[in-house]
Amino acid sequence: MKQIIAAVFYLVLFSGTAFSQSKAIPQSWKLGTSTILLPDMTPATLAEVKQSGIDYLEIGWKGPLVSGTPAERLTFARTAYQDATRAGLVLWSTHIPYGKRLDISETDPEKRPAILAAVKEYIDLAVEMHVKQIVIHPSTEPIADEDRPKRIAACRESLKELAAYCKAKNASLALEGLPRTCLANTSKEILQILDGIDGVGVCFDSNHQLQEKPEEFAKAVGPLIRTLHISDYDAVNERHWMPGRGIINWNNVIAALIAAKYEGAFMYEVVKKEGDNITFKDLAPNYETLKKAWAAQ
């Protein structure tokens, strides 16, 4: 199976590059991973993460903490920062939890204040963790076509308030492009949502584009990109596979990011599925393969 994946990997990587510009990947693109790929956040595990070649982390909030108390979340945030710092890791980003309780596109004006209050708690926790970027989803799903305009309007109103809150906290908010019927499912729509809202950037997730190629999305939003979620897919649905397993032309994606002058972490968001034997230790070799393929053009 690994041999087949490797063969597909090189076929995709060398199948042509529309945006080739440089032979060197920017030095600022330090390797990172979402904590969803880690077995835990103990000091011993974090030390192994650093030793594996990973420099940056994105903190994901697991269910027990999301359903826990504010005090428990605050303790986790402070401990995560302390333990990561001791291990030599940088907390680059955090992902605000998502779901109906945190859906910033909620159109009911009576429900939205509680939603924004909950989101602001996670922004405060991000500040406690000294992260560089805060990733937020624009909506849940499904969204019917006839409901889309009012959901976009509600999302924009929420983002205006959250942008002001982040500015006061000296925090950076990044709206994630999403798949299927979610809001921001195309580059055109995410630009529409963000139009005129200062202070909010984009989280480019390479496996969420179902209506355009990932590199087309990245090229369109360009300098708005503040952080990444790197993984592969089949263009049928999001998969969060290891790069090389799916259909993405990584040379094209890298070229688009260089053209956008992206300078942040190269943050993987690979999800281990049933039957997979991948771990965080596979990320550094995978990233090296991407860099070698880019340099070999």
TrEMBL record:
InterPro entries: IolE/XylAMocC-like (IPR050312), Xyl_isomerase-like_sf (IPR036237), Xyl_isomerase-like_TIM-brl (IPR013022). SUPFAM superfamilies: Xylose isomerase-like (SSF51658). Residues 46-273 form the Xylose isomerase-like TIM barrel domain. GO terms for molecular function: isomerase activity. The keyword Signal applies. The keyword Signal applies. Residues 1-20 form the signal peptide. Keywords: Isomerase, Signal. It comes from the Bacteria. This is Sugar phosphate isomerase/epimerase.
